[in-house]
Amino acid sequence: MTTTAAKDPKHYPALRNLQFSPIKEGEEQYIVLWDPTGLSKERLVLPLNYFFIVQHFDGEHSLQQVGALYLKRFGEFLMPDKVEQLVTDLDQKLFLEGERAEEARREQRAQYRESPLRTAAFAGRAYEADGAKLKKQIDGFFTSKEGPDFKPSENAGKPIKGVVAPTYDLKQAGPIYAWAYKELQEATQPDVYVLIGTAYAGLDNLFAVTDKDFETPLGVVKADQPLLAKIRERFPVAFEEDLCHQAEHAIEFQLPFLQQIVGAKKPFTIVPILCSFSALSMAEAPVQQSVEVFLAGLRDILKSSGRSYCVVAAAELAHLGMRYGDKEPPTDFSFHRSMQHDLEMLKPVEERKPEEFTKYIITENDKRRISGFAPIYSLLRLIEAESGQVLRYDRGITDQYNSTVTYASMAFF
User: Fold this and answer.
1) How far apart are CA 259 and CA 265, in angstroms?
2) Which InterPro entries does the protein's record reference (predicted)?
3) Nearest Cα to Cα of residue 208 among 56, 64, 37
């Protein structure tokens, strides 16, 4: 009987779960790496041959094995001192798994939990950092030519049950957000908003709840402590990864709209939840059971409170192009074909049929990478609505290679 000794991370480096994107400078192509969790604030630009190297930093390949693969791929030797220096640089940037990253996580988690607030992480980048300018910016989204028209909603005055809104950069997608929030503006508004977004950096558990109040340039949004206490009592594990809220943008991007539309009239509270599961993973019995247990329990807590609530699913749809793993940039034809698939996929969402929504994506093998599946699925499980409607659909271009993200606004009554 043989036993496997723990592999020395200096010789078997393991890259953390980073994001990357191709960039072009002149005729040269590079790859930029960054940390979506915010543990590291660094970015690293690598030539393609070095990106080949770090792709094999999986904790299973030794540096010697990586060198052999490099020789086979590029026909030249990889000098040991160069690869060792690369490992050192990555470790210093907290891009590798190991003790330095673990210690940084512990410090970051302690700081977050000691803080009374989840502070605005994207103000000044994705939207205005000054309160007065932000109010003007939000108003501009509603009056933009891409924004909602001025005729009253056919659902004006009805209790709103849920909305789907983008999570894309507000500077570009703000008018599409406004289509959803115009419906909220004209509806009978509840006092509680269950905000559910995608944890783009991933989670060990499927859901991450935080009880922090959220700060924006427009003030502080209060978390609903009575509801959160009941959620913690039933699902304590859901609070273990609350740190992920610090660097994720999905919920933060909804708050200025809520503050402008609801907060200007009356106080409101939020239940902030991030989630990370795919349609394909729902075919696995343990995942499906865990998802259904949490959502059924959350729905029970919300209904038992006797308070009206609105679920906001902060969600993007398809991700197309080289940035997201495709071999070629999307063409106009491939985008329009994806748009047709998106609108077909959203039909069962309009009809409040979560199983059919899931089935559609599974049938496609999730080849278009629907990152907003989990929030939208959760919304459908939590609300009791008589109608649902796609209000507006659009896309954003994310890099020089025409990589594309699609998104939509929806409302449920």
Assistant:
1) 9
2) MEMO1_fam (IPR002737)
3) 37
Q: Beta strand pairing status for 388-397 and 404-412?
A: antiparallel
Q: What is the DSSP string of 312-374?
A: EEE----EESGGGT-SSPPPHHHHHHHHHHHHHHHHHHHTT-HHHHHHHHHHTTTTT--TTHH
Amino acid at site 23: I
Report the alpha-carbon distance of residue 281 to residue 365 in Å, rounded.
Answer: 11
DSSP class per residue in 189-232? P-SEEEEEEE-TT--SSSEEE---EEEETTEEEEE-HHHHHHHH
| Domain 121-412 annotated CATH 3.40.50.720 | no
DSSP reduced 3-state for 137: helix
Helical H segments across 3-130, by residue range: 48-55, 63-74, 80-92, 99-114
CB 404 within 8 A of CB 324: no
C-alpha separations of 370 from 286, 315, 324 in Å: 21, 9, 11
How would DSSP label each residue in 217-229? Answer: TTEEEEE-HHHHH
**Structural domain spans, the chain:** 19-106, 121-412
Q: Is 51 helix (H, G, I), strand (E, B) or coil?
A: helix
Tell me which residue of 143, 139, 135, 136 sits closest to 216, measured CA to CA: 135
The SS3 call for residue 94 is coil
Collect all residues with Cβ–Cβ distance below 8 Å to 411 and sequence separation of at least 6.
Answer: 155, 160, 162, 163, 164, 180, 183, 184, 388, 389, 391
- Give the residue from 386, 183, 378, 354 showing the smallest Cα distance to 275: 378
One-letter amino acid of 29: Q
Rounded Cα gap, residues 95 and 34, in angstroms: 8
pLDDT in tens, 21-59: 888 888 889 999 999 998 999 999 999 999 999 999 999
**pLDDT digits over 301-330, tens only?**
999 999 999 999 999 999 999 999 899 999
For residues 344 and 400, what is the distance between their CA atoms, to the nearest angstrom?
29
